[in-house]
From TrEMBL:
Its EC number is 2.3.1.8. Residues 321-635 form the Phosphate acetyl/butaryl transferase domain. GO terms for molecular function: phosphate acetyltransferase activity. This is Phosphate acetyltransferase.
Length: 661
């Protein structure tokens, strides 16, 4: 499961940390669907930042682990607190601390001392595991894949054994036996060449004899010379088969590899013990250690507490949000038009989106220019369609459609033709209106007004057009509205923005808890601005009783449970847990989203437009390639959701008509 270590190192070194986290999250999500609980082993790389980012991405609490061997109490505490600080920075709750490789002779003293130190920091000590020879040892069946070896003799039970040393047997048999006898309880893996049958037979006799030195196994290596020599292999096989019929004990395991003795010993030297699915003895030993060294009750209580908090908050992390969006796009890729077809960031985003299968893309611009710019960037746009507005065959139909949409606005045919052929945003909107594209994304080199104006002229509905930003904070995703369109909304407009923003949040998997913001919390202040928000809350509750909405609320009371408990004395479904924040005007909303973005490093996806017949979304002129990819995916999901809603409405209308007949 997950990403192989070598691939992860490559991605980190290439600065593709986001892609690594995407892949880890995707693997985790797929694996989690088949299991009740998933334990993720940390990477142990560097300062622990990558581990914290992974924990944040999958919305998981963490257990801090630390090696106690050769550590003073002060050093141990310092390392634990450094890991805690990194997890705190990413808002990762910690279940407690586990110590590994605690020296057995002073384990109880170490536990008592460190437990008191950790209690000062609010961290429980969950367990202290001693250094263990069995877990550290390498098993014989781990040697098989590492040395590309085959099993000649020996059962699975015998191979599930650790060897304590490696002996290279190039000396005479009697010298080897003397060496093994002098080493007492050592159970070595003896490495010798295939032509040393005297070693094999001598060690076999030693094992059969209860007085002989113990051997874990024999590894036969390439003997040099002719490769087709069998070295009495068939005779050896008959001898072992004969012994197996009458011998009651376990026969000596013998492995064989085509590696030279030098290469085989070199690989053995680099092997480290592991606990694998086939490690029956080690797994049972680990269970025994867990039972005796772990405070299971405290661990379970901590897990249950975190599950309750996560369930209550229904928190959506940025990685969960992005994965959900991209999964929907992969399952049902939509056709999105990008008017700024020769812009470098747009070209790179178009290449990534089509190569990953997230959307079908049409780029607007002169095909030769677009191709030349893509070639300079090394961007593969072979999967994109390129359309030149000046030569497109359907221009006349677009002009007619624009004249119809702007009927009564004194728009002349000449002016309509000029708008369609010279304004790429208008052309893109006309493609969407005609059904030749499902949605549009623009704004990398155009102002918000230049991007949105054509959409409002052609795709406007009777509803208020507004916008939201998805604010991807380190540990959660919030919805801010309206931060881009309506300058001074009245109470009715605010009510409409709140309802639309709640529906947008729900469509993207975020449970809407709507906070209507003001400088006053539930009547702590008074004035026209406060009254406007109070009236808006009343309108929302009357028109949408299904929504959880409260206000007026100050931002801190809306987002922080501690502040909410001080400022609001009644039970609240929203205060301290809000996910959708409706600002009283554009001045407040626009400045707040930019302040949060700059101060926290949050990714702001948007503005995502609401109230249009078909989705058209704006980009910031300072957007990155990833911002464009995200906005294309958001637009695709809007198309999918709109299609579902329209399908439901059509079915309801048909049923109502059928009932009346």
């Amino acid at each position: 499961m997950g990403v192989p270590e070598e691939e992860a190192v490559r991605l980190v070194a290439a600065g593709q940390r986001a892609e690594l986290l995407d892949r880890v999250y995707a693997s985790f999500t797929a694996y989690k669907e088949m299991h009740d609980m998933v334990i993720v082993h940390g990477t142990g790389v560097g300062s622990g930042k990558l581990d914290a980012e992974i924990a944040s991405a999958i919305s998981s609490p963490a257990i801090i682990t630390c090696q106690a061997k050769d550590q003073s109490l002060a050093d141990l505490k310092r390392k634990i607190l450094l890991k805690k600080a990194m997890l705190d920075d990413h808002k990762i709750p910690q279940l407690g601390v586990c110590l590994n490789k605690v020296p057995l002779f002073d384990r109880n003293i170490t536990m008592a001392q460190i437990k008191n130190k950790l209690a000062e920091e609010g961290l429980p000590l969950l367990g202290a595991f001693p250094e263990d020879a069995m877990l550290r040892g390498v098993r014989l069946d781990e040697v098989l894949p590492a040395l590309e070896a085959q099993r000649m003799f020996g059962s699975n039970v015998v191979l599930d054994q650790e060897y304590s040393a490696v002996y290279v047997a190039s000396q005479r048999l009697e010298e080897l036996l003397e060496l093994m006898a002098s080493d007492g309880d050592t159970r070595p893996l003896v490495v010798t060449s295939r032509d040393r049958l005297d070693i094999v037979l001598g060690l076999l006799a030693s094992q059969v004899s209860i007085a002989g030195p113990s051997v874990a196994g024999i590894l036969l290596t390439h003997a040099g010379g002719l490769t087709n020599r069998t070295y009495a292999h068939s005779l050896l096989l008959r001898m072992f088969e004969g012994l197996a019929k009458g011998y009651q004990g376990s026969l000596l395991p013998i492995l064989s590899t085509n590696l030279t003795m030098y290469d085989a010993v070199r690989r053995l030297d680099h092997l480290t013990g592991a606990v694998l699915p086939t490690s029956t003895r080690k797994i049972q030993h680990c269970k025994n250690l867990f039972d005796t060294c772990m405070d299971a009750n405290s661990l379970v209580a901590g897990i249950e507490k975190e599950e309750q908090l996560i369930t209550a908050a229904r928190r959506v992390t940025p990685k969960m949000f992005a994965h959900s969006i991209k999964s929907k796009c992969l399952a049902n890729p939509q056709h999105i038009v990008l008017p700024e077809g020769s812009e470098p960031r747009v070209l790179k985003a178009a290449s990534e989106v089509t190569l990953r299968g997230l959307a079908k893309i049409t780029l607007l611009g002169d095909p030769a220019t677009v191709a030349a710019e893509a070639k300079k960037l090394g961007a593969d746009i072979s999967g994109c369609r390129v359309v030149d507005p000046k030569t497109y065959p359907a221009v006349d139909k677009y002009v007619e459609r624009l004249l119809e949409a702007r009927k009564g606005k004194n728009l002349t045919p000449e002016a309509a033709y000029d708008a369609v052929t010279n304004d790429v945003n208008m052309f893109g909107v006309m493609m969407v209106a005609a059904g030749e594209a499902a949605g549009m994304v623009s704004g990398a080199i155009h102002t918000t007004a230049a991007t949105i104006r054509p959409a409002m002229q052609v795709l406007k509905t009777p509803n208020l057009v507004s916008s939201v930003f998805f604010m991807c904070l380190p540990d959660k995703v919030l919805v801010y509205g309206d931060c881009a369109v309506n300058v001074t909304p009245g109470s009715g407009d605010l009510a409409s923005i709140a309802a639309c923003s709640a529906d947008t949040a729900a469509a993207f998997g975020i449970e809407p808890r709507v906070a209507m913001l003001s400088y006053s919390t539930m009547g702590s202040g008074a004035g026209p601005d406060v009254q406007k928000v109070t009236d808006a809350v009343k309108l929302v509750k009357e028109s949408r009783p299904d929504l959880m909405v409260e206000g007026p609320l100050q931002y801190d009371a809306a987002i922080d449970p501690t502040v909410a408990s001080v400022k609001i004395k009644t039970a609240s479904e929203v205060a301290g847990r809000a996910t959708v924040f409706v600002f009283p005007d554009l001045n407040t909303g626009n400045n707040t989203y930019k302040a949060v973005q700059q101060a926290t490093g949050a990714i702001a996806m948007g503005p995502v437009m609401q109230g249009l017949r078909k989705p058209v979304n704006d980009l910031s002129r300072g957007c990155t390639v990833q911002d464009i990819v995200n906005t294309i995916c958001v637009t695709g999901v809007q198309v999918i959701v709109n299609a579902i809603v329209m399908g439901v409405q059509v079915r309801v209308a048909w049923l109502c008509g059928w009932w009346r007949t």
